[in-house]
């Protein structure tokens, strides 16, 4: 195990062991404990009281972050010719159909999100083995299979993200960059957690939000008191 640097030791010293911070406190503290020289991502990990193995306890959804993600999201719009102008005007980085399907079959996946239409999903289904493991497969539940191509592209470019609970009951997502202000980090985290709460399955029993941690790339996690999420 690598030794901690002086800055990392100082950062860890700012986190009080065993303390659950308010979301407001954590949003400021995560900036203080981040020592990376690059603009690190700010991540939220929420452990849910669900059993993802059961279909009626699966938690999946989308959320539009108030301040965006801070990332340049590369969007591919796989659409019919009549939707090309709409997708292009909305800001899609790549627009087309057959030529991009062939590129993906050849191994090209230099994109972050694929948006397509119900009428062409039959052609895209064959790409599942390539797109699935990379989390790129379009899905109606995440809003990436729609006839409203332009709106879908705009939403993704403005900070719409989709999330899904993993097999261990944890939802992990990036909600911004360390260059964001504490208020921006807090607003984005609050919107994400509030959306998770609204998606609570009726079959889930007992405590739904078991733990929340806020961190940045390579920083320690800061435990958050779930009750503080709704505080002003």
Automatic annotation (TrEMBL):
Pfam families from the UniProt entry: Ribosomal_L1
UniProt superkingdom: Bacteria
CDD domains cross-referenced by the UniProt entry: Ribosomal_L1
GO-annotated molecular function: rRNA binding; structural constituent of ribosome; tRNA binding
Sections of the chain in a coiled coil: none
Annotated SUPFAM superfamilies: Ribosomal protein L1
Keyword entries, A-Z: Repressor, Ribonucleoprotein, Ribosomal protein, RNA-binding, rRNA-binding, Translation regulation, tRNA-binding
Gene Ontology cellular component terms for the protein in this record: large ribosomal subunit
Matching InterPro entries: Ribosom_uL1_bac-type, Ribosomal_uL1, Ribosomal_uL1-like, Ribosomal_uL1/biogenesis, Ribosomal_uL1_3-a/b-sand, Ribosomal_uL1_CS
Gene3D superfamilies: 3.30.190.20, 3.40.50.790
GO biological process: regulation of translation; translation
SUBUNIT field: Part of the 50S ribosomal subunit.
HAMAP family (alphabetical): Ribosomal_uL1_B
Family: Belongs to the universal ribosomal protein uL1 family.
Function: Binds directly to 23S rRNA. The L1 stalk is quite mobile in the ribosome, and is involved in E site tRNA release. Protein L1 is also a translational repressor protein, it controls the translation of the L11 operon by binding to its mRNA.
Full protein name: Large ribosomal subunit protein uL1
Recorded name of the encoding gene: rplA
